[in-house]
């Protein structure tokens, strides 16, 4: 882990801590960075869910099994 001295917007840090439920500045910054780093994978999953490949809910066999 790298130790870095930076200026951080206090209002943005407070808002991020409230949103993330974090208690310390270090925890907030690291969690926020992790969330942004994982964003690309979440967006790829959403795109797949929107795609025809994932859209099999109109198939009777799929829906029949959904209720079991």
Give a short overview.
By secondary structure, the chain is mainly α. It is built from three helices and no strands. The protein has one domain (10-67).
Please describe what this structure looks like:
The chain is mainly α and 68 residues long. It has one domain (10-67). The protein has helices at residues 10-20, 25-50, 60-66. Helix 1 packs across helix 2. The radius of gyration is 20 Å and the shape is elongated. The chain starts with 9 loop residues before the first helix and ends with a helix. The mean pLDDT is 88. InterPro entries: VapB_antitoxin. This is Type II toxin-antitoxin system VapB family antitoxin.
Keyphrases for this structure?
single chain, 68 residues, mainly alpha, 3 helices, 65% helix, elongated
Query: Which structural class fits the helix and strand makeup?
Result: mainly alpha
Rg is 20 Å
Strand content: under 5%
Number of domains: 1
User: Separation of termini?
Assistant: 48 Å
**Tally of contiguous helical segments:** 3
Secondary-structure element string: HHH
* Amount of helix: 55-70%
- Uncertain spans: none
Q: Based on CA inertia axes, which overall geometry fits? A: elongated
Mean pLDDT: 88
Can you summarize the main beta sheet?
A: none
Tally of strands? 0
Question: What is this structure's SSE topology?
Answer:
Blueprint: H1 10-20, H2 25-50, H3 60-66
Helix pairs in contact: 1-2
Protein name: Type II toxin-antitoxin system VapB family antitoxin
Pfam family, one: VapB_antitoxin
Organism: Nesterenkonia sphaerica
């Amino acid at each position: 882990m790298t130790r870095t001295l930076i200026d951080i917007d206090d209002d943005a840090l407070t808002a991020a801590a409230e949103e993330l439920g974090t208690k310390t500045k270090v925890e907030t910054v690291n969690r926020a960075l992790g969330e942004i780093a994982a964003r690309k994978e979440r967006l790829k999953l959403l795109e797949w869910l929107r795609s025809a490949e994932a859209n099999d809910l109109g198939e009777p066999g799929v829906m029949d099994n959904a209720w079991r």
